[in-house]
Amino acid sequence: MLDLIVRGDAGDVGVEDGRIAALGPELAGPARCELDARGLLVLPGAVDVHVHLNDPGRADWEGFATGTAALAAGGTTTFVDMPLNSTPPTVDGAGFDAKLRAAEGVARVDFALWGGLVPGDPDRLDELAARGVVGFKAFMSATGMPEFAAADDLTLYDGLRRAARLGLPVAVHAESDAITAGLAARAAAAGRRTMRDYLDSRPAIAETEAIARAIHLAEETGAALHVVHVSTGRGAVLVAEARARGVDVSCETCPHYLALTGEDAERLGAVAKCAPPLRSADERETLWDALRAGRIGMVASDHSPAPPELKRDDDAFASWGGIMGCQTLYAVVLTEALERGLAPADVGRLVATAPARRFRLAGKGLLEVGADADLALVDPTATGPLRADELRYRHRTSPFVGRDLGCRVVRTLLRGVDVGAGAAPRGRLVRPAPA
Asked: What is the pLDDT of residues 227-282, one digit of tens each?
């Protein structure tokens, strides 16, 4: 007997022991429970591979309790937590263990962990690999966090060589520190501190120069490379060209680059500050072109929260640079994608299937027999502006508040069980499958 049948317009999903056991029209059952999802989009639970939660040490920014409640509310069933912004950061075995302790028994959805690639003892990467990180994250520009230093070129080169031996990818925040820091210093000397000044201090060339440099190092070392939060069409072209000549490189973009522009940042202020910054409307459309063409393979939220007092509107350079967006990953991307002629299945591939495949999260991001029964049920008729009281973040702010959305996630199932409001935490650590 099946545990659950989800009845949908495009077919039914049968669930047994937390996995998809059957797919097809009008499944006969029997089942212990049935869920009527007719009229809804039945999509694979999102696999958000770029999330900053701040347990342990900074749970007042965003901890596993509130962050994973928001992820569950938005249709995400698996996320990968970034290694900085917690104390200690996840840069060695002890940091991994501390992060895992903070998540266990608290996380509502499944999770994996990134390790950090920072200057220092390279043997720490082996410690992290042995514990099951999906890969190593490095910053090519200043992080703003003294305990997580940027990787200079030698650190990145050595780290890529070690990662290649360990069979794990390196993810890079690709911006040229020389360009961005230099332009920021010029702005400060001239007393220019507005959001427009901040946007101008991080031009597209700062991103594309760093992407090209990271690709060159990855090509030389034979390592797998992943470029996070690509904000320019040219950046995506560099990745695609390298992939075409055999480099093992992928990239992601984020909902805020697909929906918002620099003009929105000027209008909204610090709540819309991020790095790389929001770009022009024309640049936004080059990202959609890259998604259609396959140059960008996935979308992740880069949810990067901070207490409101760190989001300053009086000084754009001093304000915390991060956008809160993990709860709206599916809703924003679906809204924007459907307006541009993409299908819901395309969005499912971008936010669930492709990231799970790239980072070897077996059984995740798929609607197929044998996969985990991780589902996002989306109401395409639940339209209207996003309200702050819908958010489950610790601090209920987002640049998407007030923005019209074309849908809402109404139910999220993790291994066949509803993980919505009031549900007991049941998230567990997911390690990458062998290469």
From this structure: 999 999 999 999 999 999 999 999 999 999 999 999 999 999 999 999 999 999 99
How would residue 435 be classed by pLDDT, with cut points 50, 70 and 90?
confident
| Long-range contacts (CB closer than 8 Å, 24 or more residues apart) made by 208-214 | 208/232, 208/234, 208/235, 208/238, 209/176, 209/179, 210/140, 210/141, 210/172, 210/174, 210/175, 210/176, 211/174, 211/235, 211/238, 211/239, 212/238, 213/140, 213/153, 213/174, 214/140, 214/156, 214/172, 214/174
Strand order in the sheet with 11-16: 19-24, 11-16, 4-8, 34-36
Q: pLDDT by residue (tens digit) across 99-157?
A: 999 999 999 999 999 999 999 999 999 999 999 999 999 999 999 999 999 999 999 99
* CB contact at 8 A, 397 and 79: no
Contact 339, 345 (CB under 8 A): no
**Residue 153 contacts residue 177 (beta carbons within 8 Å):** no
Strand, helix or coil at 225?
strand
Query: What is 99-112 written as a DSSP string?
Result: HHHHHTTT-SSEEE
Of 64, 266, 84, 108, give the one whose Cα is nearest residue 173: 84
Torsion of CA 258, 259, 262, 265, to 10 degrees: -130
Q: Which amino acid is at 395?
A: H
Residue 207 has pLDDT above 80, yes or no: yes
Residues with Cβ within 8 Å of residue 28, at least 6 apart in sequence: none
Q: Residue 78 in contact with residue 430, Cβ under 8 Å?
A: yes
From the candidate CATH numbers 3.40.50.360, 3.90.190.20, 3.20.20.140, 3.40.50.460, the one assigned to the domain spanning 44-408: 3.20.20.140
Q: In terms of DSSP bridges, do strands 375-379 and 384-385 run parallel, antiparallel, or are they unpaired?
A: unpaired
Using DSSP, state whether 56 is helix, strand or coil: coil
Q: Which value, in Å, is the radius of gyration of the alpha carbons in the chain?
A: 21
Average pLDDT rounded to a whole number, residues 324-337? 98
Query: Could you report how far apart the first and last alpha carbons of the chain are, in Å?
Result: 35
* Domain locations in the chain as residue ranges: 1-39, 44-408
Give the span between the Cα atoms of 328 and 349, in whole angstroms. Answer: 17
Contact yes or no for 209/176 (Cβ under 8 A):
yes
Check if the beta carbon of residue 328 is closer than 8 Å to that of residue 84: no
How many DSSP H helices and E strands does the chain contain?
Answer: 15, 19
What pTM value is reported for the model?
0.98
Is 237 within 8 Å of 205 (Cβ atoms)?
no
- Amino acid identity for residue 255 in this structure: P
